[in-house]
Structure to design on (562 residues):
């Protein structure tokens, strides 16, 4: 390779303009914590030769399946697969889903080489069915490889990783779509202002979030994407979520209060990412990404599995040729104005609540389970109507016309497991809120204050052991309920007060505990009180002592079962 280490596939002038070659030439670090720190700091980002060496080393150390195609395989098969075709006219494999190959700083020869490598990968990995991120990965690796064969081998090792705890690249539509749902859930929890904007301006918010990988693997300029990839190789898939969340935060900061450039927010974000250098440097982008205190990797894995199971229950495992069946029910569609009836909330208010719920349940429509005006003011009847449904939504209207409520992750029948004793259950997906006189949502305190805990050591279950998901009826298979997402037992909490999500007895219903209750309702559904509690770190949801005008409980119904 010619000095400063560019190969024959790179446009030297573009590369010099994009990434100056000024950095160190050697890396002596061997310990993961130090390597992690150096990757975040960009230690090898300014040295083309050193980045190539580091990529070679990091990818070589990826644990792979026993038979993984290497450079010699590429040399054997490339001629047979490409034949006499011009490399620039080669078709792309179907699994890239018509994704354009980002050129970055590649010359014409490099662009053709990427197509050849992708076709050879398709030949060696027939099980890959959907992988739109791969063209960008191959294009980037080609900048830092001696030849096509070495680039092919690197890409193959990334694809052949067999460490279940080290997810790298989605290779099926099911994995891709569940990642998009997981990203949507993370946006909902960590970028609430941006999420509110997305819901307001897009007809299908998941379609916007389904573009998140394209922001990274396609729209980001080379010097940004390479910095992300540096850390990704050391730390894994979670880094991608972090950076995409940071991009959305910057987009919201820049565009908040401004009219969108088009009526297509999806396209606006793509343009923003492509021109991100006008807004933030690679260093500031990563700084913002790592300032977001995300769930643990294992907890995100549980959420991903929960979303995968929801899609499987819907029969969504491959991309449809016409229209994706996995589109999130846009809140205007999930909450039909013509047939939605509530004594407590308007259609608009229910849509606001629907935009807060986990993505896997936003595939459903609201189903009225209990209404005090229809079923009477009885807590016993409330339980009877709600049991067998998970999750549920509790709505309360006071005689002062205040409106508040809670999203409750767990079937109320769980209360029967404690022998008549009032005990708390539920998971960290529970949240409480008020709608009138002003809108405010309070989530589990650990989400915004992870310093209160550190994840406990636990083994993530197999996909079959994920919690019961899409159907509004609870599964009878106990294996389905082994390890729900954000179960309190996954965390080393300082006390039980941070995990008092929901409790129900014959005489009262309680949401949130520790230092007070977020909601307390008596057995006659007549009186209640609200105050600060440790579980949600909330302010009172309405007048601290209130009289109840109406109570409703809503379930989540799969539209296909109606």
């Amino acid at each position: 390779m010619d000095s400063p280490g560019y190969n024959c596939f790179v446009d030297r002038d573009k590369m010099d303009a994009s990434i100056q070659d000024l950095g160190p030439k050697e890396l002596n670090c061997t310990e993961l914590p130090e390597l992690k720190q150096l990757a975040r700091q960009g230690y090898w980002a300014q040295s083309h030769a050193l980045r190539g060496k580091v990529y070679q080393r990091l990818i070589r150390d990826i644990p792979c399946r026993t038979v993984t195609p290497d450079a010699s395989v590429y040399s054997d098969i490339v001629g047979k697969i490409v034949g006499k075709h011009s490399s620039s006219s080669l078709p792309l494999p179907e699994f890239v889903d018509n994704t354009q190959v980002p050129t970055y700083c590649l010359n014409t020869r490099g662009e053709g080489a990427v197509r050849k490598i992708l076709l050879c990968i398709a030949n060696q990995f027939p099980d890959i069915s959907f992988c739109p991120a791969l063209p960008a990965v191959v294009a980037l690796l080609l900048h830092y490889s001696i030849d096509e064969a070495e680039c092919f081998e690197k890409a193959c090792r990334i694809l052949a990783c067999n460490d279940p705890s080290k997810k790298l690249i989605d290779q099926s539509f099911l994995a891709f779509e569940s990642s998009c749902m997981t990203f949507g859930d993370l946006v909902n929890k960590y970028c609430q202002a941006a999420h509110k904007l997305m819901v307001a301006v897009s007809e299908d918010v998941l379609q916007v979030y389904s573009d998140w990988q394209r922001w990274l693997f396609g729209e980001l300029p080379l010097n940004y994407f390479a910095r992300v990839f540096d850390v990704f190789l050391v730390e894994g898939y979670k880094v991608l979520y972090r950076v995409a969340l940071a991009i959305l935060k910057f987009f919201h900061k820049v565009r908040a209060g401004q009219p969108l450039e088009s009526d297509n927010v999806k396209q606006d974000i793509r343009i923003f990412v492509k021109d991100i250098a006008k807004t933030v440097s690679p260093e500031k982008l990563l700084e913002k990404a790592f300032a977001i205190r995300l769930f643990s990797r294992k907890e995100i894995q549980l959420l991903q599995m929960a979303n995968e199971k929801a899609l499987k229950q819907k029969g969504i495992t491959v991309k449809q040729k016409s229209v994706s069946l996995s589109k999130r029910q846009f809140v205007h569609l999930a909450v039909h104005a013509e047939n939605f009836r509530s004594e407590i909330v308007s259609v608009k208010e229910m849509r606001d609540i629907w935009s807060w719920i986990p993505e896997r349940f936003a595939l459903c429509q609201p189903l009225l389970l209990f209404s005090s005006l229809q079923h009477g003011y009885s807590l016993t009847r409330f339980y009877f109507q709600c049991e067998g449904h998970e999750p549920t939504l509790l709505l309360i209207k006071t005689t002062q016309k205040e409106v508040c409520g809670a999203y409750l992750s767990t079937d109320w029948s769980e209360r029967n497991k404690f022998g008549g004793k009032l005990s708390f259950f539920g998971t960290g997906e529970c949240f409480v809120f008020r709608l009138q006189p002003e809108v405010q949502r309070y989530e589990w305190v650990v989400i915004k204050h992870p310093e209160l805990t550190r994840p406990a050591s636990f083994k993530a279950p197999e996909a079959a052991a994920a919690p019961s998901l899409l159907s509004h009826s609870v599964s009878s298979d106990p294996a389905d309920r082994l390890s729900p997402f954000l179960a309190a037992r996954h965390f080393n909490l300082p006390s039980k007060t941070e995990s008092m999500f929901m409790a129900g007895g014959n005489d009262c219903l309680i949401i949130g505990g520790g230092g007070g209750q977020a909601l307390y309702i008596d057995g006659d559904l007549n009186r209640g009180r609200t105050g600060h509690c440790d579980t949600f770190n909330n302010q009172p949801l309405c007048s601290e002592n209130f009289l109840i005008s109406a109570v409703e409980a809503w379930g989540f119904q799969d539209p296909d079962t109606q």
